[in-house]
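Need residues for this backbone.
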């Protein structure tokens, strides 16, 4: 059995897991998420601890994958996930207009991004964007979409970048 699948998942206070048929429903203070359970994985919830085991010997890999996704789901409904973006460049700004994010990225028009369901956007400063939510995959997807409006370029480093991202700079051509 895979090493990842052997690790039990401890449930924090306020988090509940219900196994109904092919779905695992996880409820917590930050929201509720559901996860499709593959046929080859057996889930047992006992005394605030979740243990996963494969049904047959060939289901080891999928059991480890489901365990990792379930652990992220439990963390998401209890603590939540956050991705921080930075705007680098003269005149590049972000502002909230209600629930929509308005970005000035050097185009002739502002880019307006509507936050999907379950995702919270915030702008602590004009050059920072916080993407928060319970689902790790959706938080990363929304952050990647916002970054995709103006990815950082390698010559001056201008654009929308992740806060922990380092941009490898290129030297300009010389005549």
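Answer:
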């Amino acid at each position: 059995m895979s090493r990842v699948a052997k690790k039990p998942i401890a449930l924090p206070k306020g988090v509940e897991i219900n196994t109904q048929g092919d779905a695992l429903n996880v409820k917590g203070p930050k929201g509720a998420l559901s996860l499709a359970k593959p046929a080859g994985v057996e889930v047992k919830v006992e005394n605030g601890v979740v243990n996963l085991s494969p049904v047959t010997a060939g289901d080891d890999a999928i059991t480890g994958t489901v365990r990792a996704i379930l652990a992220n789901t439990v963390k998401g409904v209890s603590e939540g996930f956050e991705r921080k973006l930075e705007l680098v460049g003269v005149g590049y700004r972000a502002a909230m207009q209600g629930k929509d994010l308005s970005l000035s990225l050097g185009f002739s028009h502002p880019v307006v991004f509507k936050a999907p369901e379950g995702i919270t956007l915030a702008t602590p400063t004009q050059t920072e964007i916080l993407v928060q939510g319970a689902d790790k995959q959706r938080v990363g997807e929304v952050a990647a979409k916002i970054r995709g409006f103006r990815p950082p370029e390698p010559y001056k480093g201008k654009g929308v970048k992740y806060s922990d991202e380092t941009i490898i700079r290129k030297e300009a051509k010389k005549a």
